[in-house]
Structure formats: structure tokens, C-alpha cells
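wait is this the right file?? whatever heres the structure
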């Protein structure tokens, strides 16, 4: 009896040790105890609404530009200034000088652009500059500009107005017809009306 008890206890202890060993090995193998996601993802997925942004994401750039704040845009440019100068004749840094870039041809400054960006061709206008600054890597896959992008539409609009004030001075784009009258009044009413009509359709 006591023999069997010792045997049983022995095997129980032994299998416990084996299990412990296995779990240690497997957790090392699968890195179960480590956070594998990089702290900052390589790129943000376009169209995915960032937390806290809510309905703001849907507002067209023209509307955001109409209420943009140049002084705030100048502050946003601090995020760019480590790589870009913006004053006329400013030197290129990690990125090209940006004086007069809005409205100019893509890749027009004295700078060794990537083929990814140069290959885009055309001129920088409000819409494509907005898309580029939302996520450079999505706009021009393979670009040398290693900047995650600005997910906040109003922040981008403020910045665009600041960029425009540096040698571009393009007229602001006209707001799309639907959103033209007082952004708050009609724009806010439209989704409510749509919601009212939806049940009727059933
Ligand atoms: C880490 C450095 C870095 C940061 C930060 C950065 N850029 Fe750039 N930018 C670059 C590089 C490099 C290029 C050239 C990209 C290429 O050739 O693919 C570039 C290109 C550009 C271009 C195209 C210029 C042209 O002549 O066609 C614009 C516009 C631009 N950046 C704006 C910005 C703005 C605005 C910000 C801040 C919100 C910013 N960049 C932040 C490095 C940076």
C-alpha cells in the first residue's frame, strides 16, 4: 500500500516536472510571453477610422480647408521640419525644400526623389497632397519619405493652408455642392433624414 502510494506520488511529481519543462520550452519557442506586435505599425491602413476620430473622417477636405487655421498648421509643420525646410531657397534635408510645392510638379525640387514618388507625375493639388499626407506609403508605395502620415483631417487641412502660404497661394477649392451651405445646418441634417427614410424603404 505505502509502496503504491510512493510510486503514484513519484509519477505524479515526475509528470509535473515534465509538464513544467514542456511549457517552459514551448513558451520560449512560441514567444508566448512576449509582445510580438511592433510598437508602431509600419503603415496605417487607409480608410480605417482612427480611434476617437468618429464622424470627422467623412468630412471632405474642401470643407475642412474652409475652416482651417493657418497658425495651427504652422505648429503641425513641426512634425515635418526635421526633414524639410519651407522657406524660399531653404536647403534640402532628409527631404526636399517645400517652398511653393503645392501647385508645383511632383518632384520638382533639386532632390534625389524615389522613383515611387517621381513616377506619380502630375502636379500637387489640394486633393493629392491631402492623400499623400494622410499616408505617404499608401499614396506612393516605396517612397523614401518615412513618415506615418496624419490621420486627423482637420490637422491636415490646417497644414495644407500653411504649406499654401509658403510660395503657392492657390485659391481654396470650392466645397462640394452637397456640403456647401453652412457645414453645420445641412450637412448635419442630411444623415438624419437618410435615417428617417431608411425604415420606410422596407
Ligand atoms: C523622416 C523625414 C521626413 C518627414 C518627417 C517628412 N518628410 Fe516629406 N519627404 C521626405 C522625403 C525623403 C521625401 C522624398 C520622398 C521620395 O522621393 O519618395 C519627401 C517628400 C515630400 C513631399 C514631395 C515634395 C515634392 O517636391 O514633390 C512633400 C509635399 C512632403 N514631403 C511633405 C511633408 C510634410 C508636409 C511633412 C510633415 C507632415 C513631411 N513631409 C514629413 C522626408 C520626410
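ok assuming it is, sequence goes like this
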Amino acid at each position: 500500500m505505502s509502496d503504491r502510494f510512493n510510486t503514484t506520488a513519484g509519477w505524479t511529481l515526475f509528470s509535473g516536472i515534465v509538464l513544467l519543462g514542456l511549457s517552459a520550452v514551448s513558451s520560449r519557442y512560441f514567444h508566448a510571453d512576449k509582445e510580438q506586435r511592433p510598437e508602431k505599425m509600419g503603415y496605417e491602413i487607409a480608410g480605417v477610422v482612427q480611434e476617437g476620430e468618429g464622424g470627422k473622417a467623412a468630412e471632405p477636405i474642401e470643407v475642412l480647408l474652409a475652416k482651417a487655421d493657418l497658425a495651427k498648421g504652422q505648429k503641425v509643420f513641426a512634425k515635418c521640419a526635421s526633414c524639410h525646410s519651407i522657406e524660399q531657397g531653404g536647403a534640402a534635408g532628409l527631404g526636399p525644400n517645400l517652398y511653393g510645392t503645392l501647385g508645383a510638379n511632383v518632384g520638382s525640387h533639386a532632390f534625389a526623389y524615389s522613383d515611387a514618388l517621381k513616377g506619380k507625375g502630375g502636379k500637387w493639388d489640394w486633393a493629392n497632397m491631402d492623400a499623400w499626407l494622410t499616408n505617404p506609403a499608401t499614396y506612393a508605395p516605396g517612397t523614401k519619405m518615412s513618415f506615418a502620415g496624419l490621420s486627423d483631417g482637420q490637422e491636415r487641412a490646417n497644414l495644407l493652408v500653411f504649406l499654401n502660404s509658403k510660395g503657392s497661394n492657390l485659391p481654396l477649392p470650392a466645397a462640394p455642392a452637397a456640403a456647401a451651405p453652412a457645414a453645420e445646418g445641412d450637412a448635419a441634417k442630411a444623415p438624419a433624414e437618410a435615417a428617417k427614410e431608411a425604415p420606410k424603404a422596407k
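The pocket of heme C is lined by residues 79-80, 82-84, 94-96, 98, 101, 106-109, 113-114, 116-117, 133, 143-147, 150, 159 (CB under 6 Å). so i think its the right one actually
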